[in-house]
Amino acid sequence: MAAHKPKVFVTRKLPAPVEARMAELFQATLNPDDRPRTGPELAAGIAEAEVFVPTITDRIDKALIDQAGPNLKLIANFGAGFDHIDVAAANAKGLIVTNTPGVLTDDTADTAMALIMAAARRTVEGVDLIRAGGFSGWTPTLMLGRRLRGKKLGIIGMGRIGQSLARRAKAFGLEIHYHNRKPVGPRIEEELAATWWESLDQMLAHMDIVSVNCPHTPATFHLLSARRLALLQPHVILVNTARGEIIDEAAMANMLTDGRIGGAGLDVYEHEPAINPKLLKLPNVVLLPHMGSATIEGRVEMGEKVLINIQTFMDGHKPPDRVIPSML
Question: Which residues are catalytic?
Fold first, then answer.
């Protein structure tokens, strides 16, 4: 008798090698057009599936989870972040939730470093000047930016991505500072020559560059509130490659407009895909379309983790990347 192939519902188009393997191993319902699924389509999918594979663009809340059919056992998220999934509601219904940690660490750190460099050296402004025909030759005061060496970088969240960014930043001569719930191990702190700040407020007041690298949880929503943003020095560059909800975007946009923050490099937004209109008009803000993990290698590796989580679970074993309540 042929082995049972579980019904797997995938909400978005995934890299071709991942989809090919999905179709081989499972009864996979794919999304060849990559059109975001509507609410009714998600409800129909979760009602029929044994495994549900969402991405960050899907809101997997309690109302949707309550519509899960009796055969659903696993929500295998394509992505490391899981703030779009009501994990508590899933657990209460007896569902396992998995994610894909680790594979996007270098890609996201590369993007954060690129944003730091682009904002500090006004790279996008320079490109825009050339394309607008505004370059009439070199002058001593044209497009003056800021040197990185010797500047203080404050990293909020010293997990995998924060540490990976710190290694890159150290190579550029930046001083590494960080705020975390607790210090990293002494070996890592020594390797990075990093200084831990127990008080986020105090760290913010002393930095030249601030990078957000912590996950979005209820505790980190608007962690950089209007009050905390007001602690920043007026020349600070603020970078976010984590989640838009961690920063009060309206307050940040107002402060950037008023010159109370020197510049920003943003890959994520509070009301994504909508972006505060003020940010779109500011020359000192570098904006990317949530592409921090957008490498071929990273996305394929994410898909491979999804496949491993599903196959391991279906084989009766504990999936390696289970999201547990203590992670929330």
Answer: 243, 272, 290
